[in-house]
Amino acid sequence: MAHRRLSSYGTLGAVTRPATPGSSGLPAPSGRIQRPAWRARAVRALAVGILVGQAALLIRGYWDPHAHFGFQPFPESSTWRADIVRVTADGRRISIDEPWPGGYDWDRLVRWRVLQHPERRKHAYSSLDATVDFLDEALDWVAEHTPADTETVRLEARVEGRRNTRGPVLIVLRSDDRDEAR
Amino acid sequence: MKAPTPTAAVDAHWTFDDVFDRPASIRSMAILRIALGPAVLAHLAPFLVDTARGITYDEHFSMPWWGFLPEVPGWVQVVLVWGAAVSAVAMSLGWRTRVTSALTFVGIAGNLFLSQTHFRHNRAFLLFLVGGVVLSNAGRVLSLDALRRRRAGLDATDDQATVWPMWTLRALVSSVYLASGFSKLIDPDWASGLVLWDRAVRFQDLVRDRLPSFLAEPVIDVVTTRWVHAVSSPVAVAMELFIGVGLWFGRTRLTAVWVAILFHLSIELSASVEVFSFAAIVALVIWATPSTRDRIVTVDDPRWIRRLDWLARFDVRVAPGADLAVVDRDGSVHTGRSARWLVASRLPLTFFFVAPLRRWWR
């Protein structure tokens, strides 16, 4: 019982109280939390580990286009637009705005406002590099998830970006080749 | 005027071992826990709506965090977000707090790590806060758990617990301000105002949507003026850096908290940051000194102080017919207007409005 009451004073810890007959059971103001040595070390290691991990993520943010857990909000005012085409087995380049075998639709496939309506110039989500990376991944995802389309070999995007009003920067992205059209 | 210190003197000095071994009031973490429930629900709302319609993350573009892991089925997301929503309510009420806060954390973390497209800085920040609640004993007070303990005849008034999770959370929260400020400081486009100005021009409709028309147009005229941002951008950077540093020191803490509230309100007005403004303002409670009822207030009618003193700053004593008087932590006695200012500047709801006035009039 005594152990239960002590351990209720905190996560991974308990408060020691001087023996005060008739006391109400509250910890003495000078009470210290006592843990077995291994738990004391574990708690310190956990706290230090969390902070070191966060520091590492903050530093990593300067190399990661997405700056995950890097806490660099609103890093740019960049913009982008893209012409995305389906490249067919016979070499045609068909805009994704045109009818798509299987009835697919780019905006419904990505279902994320960041990448919808790529034909319109829009704000680059997070940063231009992050948006381009997302678009690159989206081309691969769409190429893999349109099984009813048997004519498209790959998707290709010509991206025109402006980094903080400067540019344009021209980038060509291609999805992986699709087996369905071979 | 001096009087004896009202309670045990608040020792502002904490050693590294104190952080882990010295019990202190967990009340601010309990307040944070209560407020995080609605924040988690607001954060999850779009996912709840989608999953209720039968739309899960795997039915549209998603981007795994680790390519070597197999794709998780869509029903897992349903379990994660709905489980987190239910447990967030329970966490907020303080029902089986240890379990429900952990379930909330697992739910929102799991959903976040289903796809990189789910990541937002404000969601990472929310995850930190919930993580802090999980690690702390935040259900100890202001909770159904405390009520249950009281009914079982156990002590439910003691708010003393280990506070290393609160200190860890302080470091994380501070690092968020410093990281954000530093990244902008070293970016010439940001520091010169180019980024803010260009964003303001592009998103001026947000101001039009959020302010009454008679106010919107003058505000837009100002925020789309280039030189305004040449001034405001360095100020914004300085605010973030000041908040990140100032929160750590007793002499600057209240100013930093006030600046942080102003900072977040201005962000809420000018950008779409989901639950960040609310979560960040609420998270400021963790910077309250972790001791309670260490100022004595003598008052005729105690009801309004007790209702508003969420952080239990005051030991409220009733003296019929008495004028308001406060014995501060250092033993100094305040009466009349000085006492009113002091009380109002230490209550969460009135702090933002009264704190600068108190400093001005003092």
What does this structure look like?
- The complex is a heterodimer of chains A (182) and B (362).
- Chain A is 29% helix and 20% strand.
- Chain A is of the alpha+beta class and 182 residues long.
- In chain A, strands 1, 2, 3, 4 and 5 form a 5-stranded antiparallel sheet that branches.
- Chain A is elongated.
- Helix content of chain B is 62%, strand content 6%.
- Chain B has 17 helices and 6 strands.
- In chain B, the strands form 2 sheets. Chain B has a 4-stranded mixed sheet, with helices on one face. In chain B, strands 1-2 form a two-stranded antiparallel sheet.
- In chain B, helix 7 (164-185) runs antiparallel to helix 12.
- Chain B is globular, with a radius of gyration of 23 Å.
- Chain B starts with 15 loop residues before the first helix and ends with a helix.
- Chains A and B meet through helix 2, helix 3 and helix 4 of A and helix 1, helix 5, strand 2, helix 7 and helix 9 of B.
User: How much of the polypeptide of chain A forms β-strand, as a percent range?
Assistant: 15-25%
Distance between the termini of chain B: 15 Å
Number of helices of chain A: 4
Number of strands of chain B: 6
Rough shape of chain B?
globular
Query: On the 0-100 scale, what is the average pLDDT of chain A?
Result: 84
Main sheet characteristics of chain B: 4 strands, mixed
Question: How many H/I helical runs of chain B?
Answer: 17
Give descriptors for this structure.
heterodimer, A: 182 residues, alpha+beta, five-stranded antiparallel β-sheet, 4 helices, 5 strands, 20% strand, elongated, disordered N terminus, B: 362 residues, mainly alpha, four-stranded mixed β-sheet, two-stranded antiparallel ribbon, 6 strands, 6% strand
Please outline the helices and strands.
The complex is a heterodimer of chains A (182) and B (362).
Chain A: H1 2-7, H2 37-60, E1 79-88, E2 93-95, H3 106-110, E3 122-123, H4 128-144, E4 152-163, E5 166-174
Antiparallel strand pairs in A: 1-2, 1-3, 1-4, 4-5
Chain B: H1 16-21, E1 24-25, H2 27-52, H3 74-93, H4 97-112, H5 121-135, H6 144-151, E2 160-161, H7 164-185, H8 188-191, H9 194-202, H10 204-210, H11 213-223, H12 226-246, H13 250-270, H14 276-283, E3 295-299, H15 303-308, E4 314-318, E5 325-327, E6 333-335, H16 336-344, H17 348-361
Parallel strand pairs in B: 3-4
Antiparallel strand pairs in B: 1-2, 3-5, 5-6
Helix pairs in contact in B: 2-3, 2-5, 2-14, 3-4, 4-5, 5-7, 5-14, 7-12, 10-11, 12-13, 13-14, 13-17, 16-17
